[in-house]
Target: Saccharopine dehydrogenase (NAD+, L-lysine-forming)
Amino acid sequence: MSKVIIIGAGGVANVVAKKCAQNDQVFTEVLIATRTVAKADKIVAEIKEHMPHSKAVFTTATVDADNVPELVGLINDFGPKMVINVALPYQDLTIMDACLETGVHYLDTANYEPKDVAKFEYSWQWAYQDRFKDKGLMALLGCGFDPGATQAFTAWHAKHHFQEIHYLDIVDCNNGNHGKAFATNFNPEINIREITANGRYWENGQWVETQPLEISQDIYYPKVATRKSFVLYHEELESLVKHFPTIKRARFWMTFGEAYIKHLNVLEGIGMTSIEPIDFRGMKVAPIEFLKAVLPAPESLAAGYSGQTCIGVQAKGIGKDGQPKVHFVYNVKDHADCYREVQAQGVSYTTGVPAMIGAMLMLQGEWMQPGVWNVEQLDPDPLFDAMNKWGLPISELADIELVKD
Model:
């Protein structure tokens, strides 16, 4: 049906590519492009080994995603209908520029942030609205799990359960064990920048800033465990409070073990998480980039990873019947099941599957509309149906408040 380019060849790209291979009625030709083509070649080899009956045709190419002319040349040569960007968030704008120049649709899983500033927000990408709309092209932002599915969960609440959402809590638990002393489950540089930054949450029409990991509580994650969870700032909060103005408070919670926090505190204390370059033997090197180089690659954690992830959204407010209501929508995914299916750990899987689904819904026309969009602005029902089909079954809990005030 459609040709697509996947930019990136890390853990999430591996999942996106293999789910595209499973969904070969929609994705007929796929080019995986990345700076280190050997990583893309490995993904293609695994597809041939584990999914020999897929009719999708896969090829690979080298590309520098920071280079717009190089991206334009790649896109023009291959002729896709869309680009699925699972490269680094620093590269979102160059890839969007290339899509505009070549007339193809765009999807990513994380919003743009500048490489030299530990700050991420949607303003840079929202500014592309008119350019994409005028060209009849669609850009879908943040279509992973969080961001992505969590925004669809919020839209589902609004469509099916609530007249008004007043309190929103997004919760993300990785109750898994990879056996390493210290490792991150997605790109180490992005992960550590996110965690060591000040927290933020929305309350009464303004942002409230906190110290890193300052606010915590024990939260029960259904079918998984009760885990200590910490308030972070996460990008979907920015768009959700914009598109659901009845929200009085919105927070994002994530679990971290004591050993992880201890290692992170030590690394931060000695300057290894800094993004400011230092002089090292005549070269300029940011300590966090060196740290990324010595930590295990997230995709290398998959084999032997045990435990589950649980990601969900709790909403409180006024129900469709006019009465106070609390409702929880969530997914639980087992790491070992992910590895057996697509040779990935659960964090990569839960991000990669919604990216494939979002691209499918765009290509099939269910979500296709010109302009720049966040997931919660689209009908959540097709995503829910597809998540249940493609490996991320959704559960709901009514009238049980898991996250406390």
Summary: The mean pLDDT is 94. The radius of gyration is 20 Å.
